[in-house]
Amino acid sequence: xxxxxEIDQDNLTASFQPGLVTAEFHxxxxxxxxxxxxxxxxxxxxxxxxxxxxxAGGLRGLKYGVTKDYIIGLVAVLANGDVIRTxxxxxxxxxxxxxxxxxxxxxxxxxxxxxxxxxxxxxxEAKKTMQATFKSLPDAAKAVSRIIANRxxxxxxxxxxxxxxxxxxxxxKIGLPTDVEAILFLQQDGxxxxxxxxxxxxxxxxxxENASEVKIAKDDQEAEQLMFARRTALSALARLKxxxxxxxxxxxxxxxxxxxxxxIQVAKKYDLQICTFGHAGDGNLxxxxxxxIRNHEEIEKVEKAFDExxxxxxxxxxxxxxxxxxxxxxxxxxxxxxxKEGINVMRGIKKAFDPNGILNPGKLFAETRSRxxxxxxxx
Length: 379
Hints:
The structure is a single chain. Helices cover 37% and strands 22% of the residues. By secondary structure, it is an alpha+beta fold. The radius of gyration is 21 Å and the shape is globular.
C-alpha cells in the first residue's frame, strides 16, 4: 500500500496510501511546485503512514509544524472491521470530535490507517543555510533564544553537541570543527529579500553571542552537505557500538542549555557515552546512548541515566517525547507526564476503539510502573 493516489492542485492537497516513503513523496510534490514540510530525519526510509502513527516531527518543524499539522483526512479500519472516513479536502471541519487528530500519533493502537489526505503549500522561492559554532553550550542556547525573540522563525534551527560533532565529522568528513562545544545549523526560506534579511540578522546574533565561526553556505551543494551532516547524526552514531538507544526529550527552548548540561553530567556520573543532537528551535533534544545490550551491568546504568534525564526534563516543564512516540520503551514514563487520571482517560479511549486489545497490544501502557519514585512535580 505505497501508492500516491492524487495531487489536487486546485485544493492544494494530496492523498496517498500509508506505505509511501516520505522522501519519495517530497520529490513528487516538489516537481509540481508544491511543498510538504514535515521532514523527519529518517525521511529516506520512513513511510508516511509511520509518520502519522507516531506524530513525527522533523528539521523544518520550528517554522512549519509537524505531521499532525498537515493531516486533514484519513481512511481507517477499526478493530471490528468497520471503515471510518475522517476529515477531507477541507480548510475547516468541526463536525463532532476531531477523530483525525485523535488517530494521528495513536501508534496503531486505535485503528489501521489505509489512506491519508494532507494539505500542501507553495514551494518557497528561495532558501539559505548557515552554520554557527560555539565554545560553550549556554552561548549557543542564548543565540537560539535571541533569534526567536527577534521574531525570526527559521525553517531549521538544529543543534549538535561536541560528542556528536566528532562522530559525525569522522563519518561525513566535510570539515566540521571538532574543538567546539556546539554547532547550530540554521536555514531560512521564503522570498529572496526575506531570506537575505533573516540570515544576516541570525548571523549577527550568533556573533554577538560569541560564536567562534559563522559560515553561510555559498551554494546549494554546500547547504546540502551541512544539512546532510545533521540528518546523518543517528547513522554516524550507530556505527560505533552494537546498541544505539536514541531518546527524545523536549523542553521549552529556553531550557535547552540546562538540559544539555544535565545530560553531560549524567553521562559522566554513570560513565556512559551519550551524544546529544536535535531540534534546538523547538526544544527537542535526542540524547543518544552508545552501548551494548548484552552488557547487563551497563544497560542497568543506561536505564538509571535516562530515568534521571527524564525526571529533569519534566522538572523543566518538558515532555518524555516530542516526536518519536511512547511505544514500549517509554511506556513506564507516560504516567510521569500525564498522571494517573490521564492514563485512565487514554485507557478508556483505547477500550472504546479496541475492546479486545488486538491493535498493537503492549504499546503506550506499562503493565507495571517504573522502579523510580516519581517526584511531586511529576505526579
